[in-house]
Amino acid sequence: MRIGIYGGTFSPVHNGHVAAARAFMAQMWLDILYVIPTGLTPHKEMQGNATAADRLEMLRLAFGDMEGVVVSDMEVRRAGKSYTVDTLRALSRPEDRLFLLCGTDMMLTLDSWREPEEIFRLCYPVYIRRENDTALDEEIVRKNTLYQQKYGKVVRRILAPVVDVSSSQVRQAVADDQPIDSLVPPAVADYIKAKKLYKEEGDQT
């Protein structure tokens, strides 16, 4: 089977995440896509007052009607920090092929993650552009050349229109009492309102 892995904090999940997942499934011909919210992230501090249960429920609301998507709590249940290499090991089987979806920032730093050699051995990383910054083009080429030399693989690109939205933008809009209907799926907007999530936000991260 062709299995996709899409991880992140998802606080909250937004329309950009959903669009990226759809493009990932279509262009990599995935049989299953695991959407996996991070438990304790090793890279950045979790923002907002949403609990792990909240983030899981918002993902289920966002992806509930998408065939082939499984929202997994495996990283939330795992003790300690959530490392991608551990998730890949848990899902790896000889008969399957794993694909890991990254944003541009993640693609450019893969070699600084825990056990990058093992990450490249266990999966085929792919990335999707979430920005239109052409200044990054040269760095992406340089990094892919390095990955080919060090790990024997390049990070392939998923082609999709850039959806200009971020989780921090959603949190800030909620904190400022601005509408978020155009930023997140309707069921997620309703959940955020009902649970009074992100109302205390003031961050720009």
Brief overview, please?
This protein is an alpha/beta fold. The chain is built from nine helices and six strands.
What are the defining features of this structure?
Rossmann fold; alpha/beta; 40% helix; 205 residues; six-stranded parallel β-sheet
* CATH superfamily placement: HUPs
CATH 2nd-level architecture: 3-Layer(aba) Sandwich
Spans of at least 5 consecutive residues whose pLDDT stays below 50 are none
Order of H and E elements: EHEHEHHEHHEHEHH
For the biggest sheet, the summary is: 6 strands, parallel
Report the C-alpha radius of gyration, rounded. Answer: 17 Å
Identify the overall geometry. Answer: globular
CATH class assignment:
Alpha Beta
Total tally of structural domains: 1
Query: What is the helical fraction, as a range of percent?
Result: 40-55%
What's the CATH topology label? Rossmann fold
Q: State the helix count.
A: 9
Rounded average pLDDT: 91
Spatial strand order of the main sheet: 3-2-1-4-5-6
Structural class: alpha/beta
Distance between the termini: 37 Å
In terms of DSSP E residues, the strand content is 15-25%
The count of DSSP E runs of length 2 or more, i.e. the number of strands, is 6
Description:
By secondary structure, this protein is of the alpha/beta class. The chain has one domain: 3-Layer(aba) Sandwich (Rossmann fold), CATH 3.40.50. Helix content is 40%, strand content 15%. It contains 9 helices and 6 strands, in the order βαβαβααβααβαβαα. It has a 6-stranded parallel sheet with strand order 3-2-1-4-5-6, sandwiched between helices. The longest helix has 15 residues. The protein is globular and about 50 Å long. The model has no long low-confidence stretch (mean pLDDT 91).
